[in-house]
Amino acid sequence: MACRGFLQCLLKLFNFALALVGVLLLVYSVSRLVHLDPDLTPPSPKPPSSPPPPSPSPPSPSPPSPSPAPSPSPSPPSLSSSSGLSSALPSSLKLLATPDSSPFLTTLNSGGRSSSSSNGGGSRRHLGAEGNELRLPYL
User: Fold this and answer.
1) Which of 58, 89, 97, 112 has the fewest Cβ atoms nearer than 10 Å?
2) Residue 6: what are its φ and ψ, rounded to 5°?
3) CA–CA gap between residue 83 and residue 28 (Å, rounded)
4) CA distance 100 to 94
């Protein structure tokens, strides 16, 4: 009979520990939410000490120097079309369309839609793992 009382006591202690962990987790998550979203905290008046230091202007990215893309001689015809895709893309995306990059080209302009008219009636052109051209419809 003494064992039954010990187990009940142990169960109550375990239940209290779990409740304490739950409360601490709740307090921590609320403090993280307030820390990440300062709009939830009430505005506090700041003492006027010194003006904030001016933020340095970000350096403007220099355009990449034009260099001819080396074309491998034993390449299938579907891989040579990727250099044509590279010329149709804006200069900020030309690095993504190089033949030595991954076989799946990603576009970041206008929600994934290409601005050129050579994509053939509303479909994107990708190169498959075997080098075969895949046509995927826009979603």
Assistant:
1) 58
2) -65, -40
3) 52
4) 12
pLDDT tens digits, one per residue of 59-87: 666 655 666 565 555 555 554 444 455 55
Q: Please, are residues 22 and 29 in contact by the beta-carbon 8 Å criterion?
A: no
Question: HSE-up of 66 (CA within 13 Å, CB side)?
Answer: 3
* SS3 readout for the chain: CHHHHHHHHHHHHHHHHHHHHHHHHHHHHHHHHHHHCHHHCCCCCCCCCCCCCCCCCCCCCCCCCCCCCCCCCCCCHHHHHHHHHHHHCCHHHHHHHCCCCCCCCCCCCHHHCCCCCCCCCCEEEEECCCCCEEEEECC
**Could you read off the pLDDT of 11-50 as tens digits, one per residue?**
999 999 999 999 999 999 999 988 876 665 555 566 666 6
